[in-house]
Amino acid sequence: MSFIKHRSKPDELKVLESLNERMNLSVKEKNDLSNLAKGFEGEQKFDEWLITLSNDWNILNDLRFDWNNTYYQIDSLSLLSETIHLFEVKNYEGDYYIENDTWYSVKGLEINNPFLQLMRAESLLRRFIKNLGFKYSIESYLIFINPEFHLYHAPRNQQIIFPTQLPRFMNNLSKKTSKIAKNHTQLIEQLLSSHLTKSPYKRIPKYTFDSLKKGVVCMKCRSFINSFRKISLVCSQCGYKESVTSAVLRSIDEYMILFPEKKITRSTIQEWCKIIPKKTLQKILSNNYEQIIDGKNTHYIVCNKSFN
Ligand SMILES: [Zn+2]
Questions:
Q1: What's the 216 CA to ligand 1 centre distance in angstroms?
Q2: Assigned fold of 232-302
Q3: According to the model, what pLDDT value does residue 307 have?
Q4: Does the pLDDT at position 296 exceed 90?
């Protein structure tokens, strides 16, 4: 198999993780954060299964489309011969049950029916590719990846794969090879060009630069680093050591994700990183970013210049 499009941590998750350290999130927002993190973790686990498939498979992960003003996303889309395999991955943990087609967690909280979600994506994708003139059949599967998941009154549905069935299911998939050599290039190009690079953030609370707690966060334990040493930063909570340059670049990445519209200036980044001395910061900025001088003001943009 080859991953044509890789999975990366969703921006919405990155933003929530960062906000969780820098402001007080409500219980609901913390819950959203934990669900997003769990979902991403489950998708990554499923990728480990996909790796075992044969070379005939082309895999596109994490696709988002807007078709006729209807937004939908696909966790994994795999192409083999003339068939598209759609995978919706759920990392649910604990007991769930179904009553009158409605899904509930064991606490009695209704959840979105994940099977309907998959069917909706399948139907929208089917219309989309048909509209482009492609002929592919679609097989869709709802994958429950977490071994701690149990569904009472589970429907006998071959499109729903439970954790205990997953090894067998994947084994069957890996036996499938392409009978007809099919060039997927055109379809892949169309899918990638329609993919939305930005996803609508649904769960992000309001925040401003001024309202957030500033400082460099430890890469390992996510607590704030409170002292500066010349070459490396050492976390007083967990002892993790990171070079100053790497910590600053990481913090600037975080700033850019939180404030995509804002410019990178020395004074803003100085305030953002807090503990880094002016001279050190200046050096890191000029070594790693392109300097744009606009009258009296200077800001920095991302460039491909390698740093030493
Ligand atoms: Zn730490």
A1: 11
A2: Arc Repressor Mutant, subunit A (1.10.10)
A3: 45
A4: no
